Amino acid sequence: MAQKYVYWFGPNEADGNAEMRDLLGGKGANLAEMARLGLPVPAGFTITTEYCNRFFKEGGKFDEGLRAEVAAALAKTEASMGAKFGDPDNPLLVSCRSGARRSMPGMMETVLNVGLCSRTIPGLIAQFMKGQAGNPAAKQLAGRFVYDSYRRLIMMYSDVVMEKAEGIEPAEGQGIRQQLERLMDELKERKGYKSDVELTAEDLQWLCEKFKEKVQQVLGRPFPDDPQQQLWGAIAAVFKSWNGKRAVAYRRIEGIPDDWGTACNVQSMVFGNKGESSSTGVGFTRNPATGENTFYGEWLPNAQGEDVVAGIRTPCPLNDASKNEQNKHLPTLEQSMPELYRQLVGVRDTLERHYKDMQDIEFTIEEKKLYILQCRAGKRTGTAALNIAMDMLAEGLIDERTAVRRVDPAQLDELLHPIVDPAQEKNYRPIAEGLPAGPGGACGKIVFTSDDAVRWAREKGERVILVREETSPEDVDGMRAAAGILTSRGGMTCHAALVARGWGKCCIVGAAALEVDPIAKELRVDGKVFREGDVLTLNGTRGRVYQGALPLIEAGENPRFREFMALADKFRRMPVRANADDPPAVKTARSFGAEGIGLFRIEHMFYGAGGEQPLFILRKLILAKTDEERTKVIDELAPHVESDIYATLEVMDGLPVTVRLLDPPLHEFVPNDPTERVELAKGLGITLEELDRRAKALHELNPMMGHRGVRLGISYPYLTEMQIRALLRAAARLKEEGKNPKPELMVPVTCTVKELDFVRPIFDRVKQEVEKEFGLAVDCSYGTMIEIPRAALLADQMAKSAEFFSFGTNDLTQMCYGFSRDDIGGFLPTYMDKRILDFDPFQTIDPEGVGQLMAIAVERGRKVRPELKIGICGEHGGDPATVAFCYKLKFSYVSCSPYRIPLARLAAAHAAIAAGDA
Amino acid sequence: MAQKYVYWFGPNEADGNAEMRDLLGGKGANLAEMARLGLPVPAGFTITTEYCNRFFKEGGKFDEGLRAEVAAALAKTEASMGAKFGDPDNPLLVSCRSGARRSMPGMMETVLNVGLCSRTIPGLIAQFMKGQAGNPAAKQLAGRFVYDSYRRLIMMYSDVVMEKAEGIEPAEGQGIRQQLERLMDELKERKGYKSDVELTAEDLQWLCEKFKEKVQQVLGRPFPDDPQQQLWGAIAAVFKSWNGKRAVAYRRIEGIPDDWGTACNVQSMVFGNKGESSSTGVGFTRNPATGENTFYGEWLPNAQGEDVVAGIRTPCPLNDASKNEQNKHLPTLEQSMPELYRQLVGVRDTLERHYKDMQDIEFTIEEKKLYILQCRAGKRTGTAALNIAMDMLAEGLIDERTAVRRVDPAQLDELLHPIVDPAQEKNYRPIAEGLPAGPGGACGKIVFTSDDAVRWAREKGERVILVREETSPEDVDGMRAAAGILTSRGGMTCHAALVARGWGKCCIVGAAALEVDPIAKELRVDGKVFREGDVLTLNGTRGRVYQGALPLIEAGENPRFREFMALADKFRRMPVRANADDPPAVKTARSFGAEGIGLFRIEHMFYGAGGEQPLFILRKLILAKTDEERTKVIDELAPHVESDIYATLEVMDGLPVTVRLLDPPLHEFVPNDPTERVELAKGLGITLEELDRRAKALHELNPMMGHRGVRLGISYPYLTEMQIRALLRAAARLKEEGKNPKPELMVPVTCTVKELDFVRPIFDRVKQEVEKEFGLAVDCSYGTMIEIPRAALLADQMAKSAEFFSFGTNDLTQMCYGFSRDDIGGFLPTYMDKRILDFDPFQTIDPEGVGQLMAIAVERGRKVRPELKIGICGEHGGDPATVAFCYKLKFSYVSCSPYRIPLARLAAAHAAIAAGDA
Question: Which of residues 661-720 of A touch B (CB under 8 A)?
Fold first, then answer.
């Protein structure tokens, strides 16, 4: 039997059903399902996604088998609707719409009114005038309706089928659609009309002729006057729109595979624009912004669906619950058509009961008859998602697992940070894009120095955005004072990003298009100049910078948040830790449910949070030249490191805390400021010239692969020893005080087990010494980062020395791809645009390459040491897809920045449920 | 049966033989073999290397089994020598010497005269005076000999056994040996003696008492007066010296595993210092410097072996053939002891016939009786190795395979470059070390600018060393004029290294200890200041910088070189290509036997060899801002690129030439010189300020992982297209002229097959266009570098698009280890010193990590495309061990810089022979 590519649907009957999303797309599957449910769906049929792929494989041609299937389905549709496609007397019109597995709203094409042509126009007019032949007003009305439909068809078809689907890329403003619009505008101007509705039937008829002439002239081909030709052209254009630029870009962002394809839904047209007894609208079965259990939507009398979307007329509220400031004066459907509203409410109830989820419904009322054109799970805000899930659970509609899965982890961000209102944001174009270094939204006046940020914010009470080329520890006060941070340089691990993330502060780094001039206090971009005090808005979750003030949605205190998270935790099987380095961040982490610290960076205390003194000592250390100088300075540093670790262990009492030895290339901490250099030279007792010389000698061409991590610890074993002693003494002191510290020592940037074997005896000896000093045992496990490909490949050797692994996926991704995260701005956007990369591997683990290294390391490591504890502490630890990946690899835990902990907890719960483990 | 740990040897009989090197060490195996050959070997025994490992495992203790075996072997030795160890009347003395599988000359310890003590001294004196009792002169002679032996024993034993083996590390100059030497010097001064031989028996006896007091005082233990205690102490010290600092360092350099262990040879002492009828010496069965087939060596009358080595007395030549400027006035052994010389020549003949290789022999003549103490394969220069191999082949002593294997590939370097005389070099301490970027030696006056180099060299005819912080294309003329190049910055792939290697010029880069001040024209290092005109010597093969002029050995024209290489090629199974980018280098490569170009770097033309114009155009390209500007400049650049490729294809006609698309981060080419910046701004028609801004925007934090390679080609497809067109047009033009070009296009820095799939359509289209333009077919294969770990891990995907792989092992090593080759100077020396790394992975492939990635890539790539051509074009391609590794992985070819081609050819021949393939 030949493969079936066409699925019919109509009143109470359908070949498909809701389970067949992959084959029929979401829209097609739901149309079939609604038909089966007995809902008033205009008849039609769906050409499958499989055929879409076949269509591309065959070079964009249709085969005879499909043509026969379509003919049969069309005949059945004609029978159901009592009209005939292309029939001069009683013509059936159809729409052709795309419909993929997952909704891609507005990304693909639609052609309406297919079947209108010189042969069918008179019949359709006659049909509209049924029983009113000879009535000139009725004739005018019918003529206006039909020719308006026809001009819409010509506009849409010439644009979608004849231009876009053919790959024609007209110059800016020269698209066929725009040219036709100009013709219409000219006519209106000539006639002195102010709106489209003033156009008479004759005007529109004349315009349709002009349109067709223009099409011939611009595109070199006539507008097709044959319904069959129109139909097949429209189907082909729908399929081709799967590979249109917008659709491809959207798939890239949303991670939708290219080979899913779209289905094409051919459905009988019904008309919401057949006069005052007709209308069209959209509804959500619950409020998509708040989740409130009230029917919510908009409608437009005497209109076709596209009018609602197009935003030319302000849509009316469906009911009182749907009223807002813009539309509260307009009539509701409930008032205007109470019976039909009641029917619609019935549909709403049926659909929610059936789908057990909030649905987004499109409907049309044609001469008082209600048709449902589409239903799908409705998009919703994070707040709404959470409330709907918890409500439906309470209502018994869904079970706990389903409730947990109803909230996308990424949506939780909104519940934790103020965000730029997404409904408004889409109307604005960013002036620049950068890396999303700190989540949420921020809006404020720009300042260019840390001091200004402090003065404006604290003294003037202004909300400010601190704009810098890049930040350094001296900027910390200003960063703290600012509502948001914006830099033109740096990557996801630069100073600004690290600090902002720890605080959960909105931050965009590496917005390379910006030219920051701190002297002139100017920000230049793309010919525009912004000066101190000008307002910018940052979307730190997306990395977008906007001119002016965009509205922010403030993070509300959601009382159900904790309830929901507790529910998620019920199904979670993998602990979540935090990357946090100071007591406030650690407290935040704990309040968000962190079950330990997966990454405590000793260097963090030098980023300014620990005050100036430790940084000054560190700088002396870095610029010391002899071992003698160095040893002396290290001794000075020790008490600071110890008290810093002590403070975190204290807050995380009873939970594991992984302390990482100094990691970054030290020259990062060398001051650039001349005054500070002078002071530092004095502190070291050397000349400024000598200091400059030493600083210069520290310069590295590729510091990311330079003298850092354990390499420092091997060059200066005494530095390693000091850190280990600080950690163990801090733990011993807490134990002495009756606390239960659980420290873990982590060695970074290892590439051979010999590095671990070098540090281990120091660890063992210092542990003995500290235990002797305090007269008590200190438990502390010994492990390593796996962040260098070689360490992953030789994980069996590493595991002989290490008791735990923690994947440093930032560096692992850098080395695996050969991408410097700090410099990727130079080519990542191009790589995304040109589809070389489907996603940013610094946001989500690349499962094929980096993930392969991780899988190798897990397998080889556990082979040698079955009880090996394995975690992740790169930024990826808070990415839901990565959490799922780590769960599959049987990680012992994931660790992420404090504000991402709820996301990670929820993602881990999803993963456990998906795997059938919970 | 218990394991045998002690192997006896003596006249005509031995437990071991020459095959047992692994167990008995080289010395022990050869002593056994010589004994079996009937050569006059003093009896003794060897304690095996296995026991050495056991000794360490047992914590440095001997077990009873061994003690029993030693007692038995000692008894047999006593019987053979007719003397008894520890016997007061007829005492036997023994030596204890180390002996590993492979010779580690001077790296481990020896104790002579073991068995001398208060109990045996009188007997030994009496024995010396046999028949002359009462003769005071004889008594004086005997006393001097015995007490001199005793003081030597005390010095050696206290140093080796009582101090070093105990891990005592005295302060500089405070070693026990030095303290004893001072006692002896004081005595000589007090007595007014000028040389040791003036010391009387009484002086020496007194001195021995003082020595023993000093030992007690300094080391807190008495000098042992019991022969057995001395013997076991000496054996333990020999074993322990395997883990002495020098031995460990040597093993690291030579790649000798730690677990081989050393054997300990206990052998009867014979005395070359028993008066004028005694002597000692060393001989080589052929001349170790030239390979000439003449007996060659040195001897000293009335001396012990250590005197020859110590260099206190100038040794005499063995025969006329051994005479040189220093010793030609001294008596030869041939003249002085003709009969013994004849015996020695007999031994020489026996040993060469038996071992079929040039031997290094140690002998002692005790009262006119010849003893052979040791023989081993003699160290030789490259020239000697080659001549001896070819001579022995001609003599029928060895077969062709053996002849080929007798020359170490690394030794060929000497035949191609002048080198620093190794015999002299060992007496000097380098003032700095850097990376060995260009091989051979150079000596000259230092200059600090390219112009000075040209002026001094060309106009004054001076040999100069160009000293720079780092070089840039502007320095090329000076680099060409200089005999050697020295920089304080940069890695093995920096500008200086790349250029020097192509020319085969001596070059050291990244000598970080140097502070180069081009303004003051000074070089500062370690408190010393060198000024323009001061003389330095560079060993570019080792990366060592010396003060003053060290003697160089000029590369001789060796007529047998080609003959030998042809012989090697007979067994070679893997082609060798060259990394070369301009006609002179390509010609050199071809003359060295290159069978194609494995790496032609388009960027090389911008390093200055192609003149100033292309560089200027490239700079304009780099600093262009819009696609329009860029396209225009690319068109300007095209003819230069085409003619450059044309020239190389022409020289390599008929052989494959792999052309790599632009690889380095472009900002490398941005000029720093203010004048050039002004000129460039003018060329671009922009202000200097704008130019500076653009240059700054190009800055990358980690350029090695930045916007380079195919990433540039994807950002600027037109740049890719231009290069492809230049390549294909160059090939088409040559074809038109009747030539046979074999171009291959190589895409660098790929991390996903999508990059290859992006470039491929450009390649296909341009190929069609060029073929149409010229009306002929151009064959050109399409391939990729494998230099990013991800590309190796996903080689199956890469091979779907690529027709060949070429491993870029420099970058692959960088990413696999996370080591920036340019910055590794900051920690590599420490890593080598502390044994974290056993070798420099940028010199030799790391088989465990980088090699694992290569093996994965080969396997996965060939699985998808069995005919996949696989090569290597990193610097490793010329490293013998790497060549062997690549051969094992069934590489299609290796490629290296022109001057390393002979090394690679020979290494490939060795690999094929070792694998049994040839």
Answer: 693, 697, 700-707, 711, 714-715
